[in-house]
Design a protein that fits this description.
By secondary structure, the chain is α+β, with helices and mostly antiparallel strands. It has helices spanning 22-27, 53-56, 65-72, 110-114, 134-137, 180-183, 191-200, 206-218, 298-312, 364-376; strands at 29-30, 36-37, 57-62, 84-85, 88-94, 154-158, 164-175, 220-223, 234-244, 256-264, 268-270, 279-286, 326-328, 400-403, 408-414, 418-422. It folds into two domains: 1-118, no CATH class; 141-398, no CATH class. Helix content is 19%, strand content 21%. The strands form four sheets. Strands 6, 7, 8, 9, 10, 11 and 12 form a seven-stranded mixed sheet that branches. A four-stranded antiparallel sheet has the order 13-14-15-16, with no helix packed on it. The protein has a three-stranded antiparallel sheet with strand order 3-5-4. A hairpin with an 8-residue loop joins strand 11 and strand 12.
Length: 429
Amino acid sequence: MTINMEEKYDITTDTDGDGLPDLFETYGMPVANGQVLFSDPTLSDTDDDGLDDGEEVIMHIVDDADEVKAAYNYMYHYIPDVFISDNGGIYFEMVADPDDEDTDGDGIIDGNEMVNITADPRYDNLNPVISDTIWSLFPELTDPKGVNQENNAVYIRVDEKTNHITIKTRILFDDDYNNYESVSKLKALHEQSKDIINRIGEEYTLEDLVVDGIEQRWGGEYMGSIYDFYPGMTVSVTVDVERLYEPPKDPTLHYTTVHCLSSRGRAGTKGGMEIGKNKEINMYIFGSGSLNKTYYELVEYEAVAAHEFGHTLLLSDAYPDANSGYAPVSSTSEFKEIYYNNTGFNSGLVGSGEIMYVEGDVLGNDIEMMLVGYSEGEWQRFVPSSMYSISEAIKEPQIYIKRTVISTKYYIWDEKQGFLECTKTGEVL
């Protein structure tokens, strides 16, 4: 085929061997949406996104003039003669912009959108020219017939165009939530407790501490990795607590009752595994465990509130007592899907790790487990058993630890044989 019989153009020289002639990389490649794309004829991957320029812009040389016309649609009459002849021509198909590593601006580089680099099939069909967000990746959350409904005690609202999530929750406060004598028994000796006072003021109630603990621990920004969401994604979360002091008049509106009790006891949540019902959380100012020999620090009280709130988000406990003595080993990976310090159980301090184990930090994995839970309507577990699997949001291969008075042993989970003893690094013994 001859391209533009009246002129001669060099459409064979391809210095960088990327499949696109230097002529077009330099002077531009028009595509059907009206853009003209450019790339460096001396670099096979101009934007360094892992895709050759010829993979991001596909050049078609055809013998059918109608095919060229159909490809360019309304742009056809604006296409330079070099691309068209009476018996055919050249047209370009845009897969991604060869001069922009993130064509759609969603934070994920184009090369990683063409091939899923994680073990999660949810991310199999990313598109380099359409922004991929929580809205598009978790369509169950916006399904009118799904389990995530606005009348739930907890409702997960996702923004359509950004990766912003709002956890909306109704909390009915009961018992001593505004009793000054009760809240005054809590200690404020630790620096993190003092930080709380600086944030919420010196006149606060147990109610204020519960809300602050939930908002501060669960809110924030979470970076994607090969284990959590997807590399390049940044997910932001805010918590919107609607405070109630009597049940809603509308009986279809569900809520969580938080009993702020001025006594000693073990905090707990009722109804956490069920979405379409009311829930209850019992909060105490004095813990029941052997390590709790005095009233909580403010930071500990907030940590307990955030941990118990995690159950209303469909997250199980990760600590051994709730899992037949087994617990996930803290991650040593640079991506740290599930991690916690080993300085003691229930530290409650910001920076100590997994909120559902040591009552420290909400991790990206916790947010993803919440999204999966409210997509499927299923309780999300950290440790497997003969009856239940771990959450599909947990993608890092897991090793479990079991401590007794006389030994510490490690295990992996086999779907057929159950827990198998192994080394610290996962080799079966």
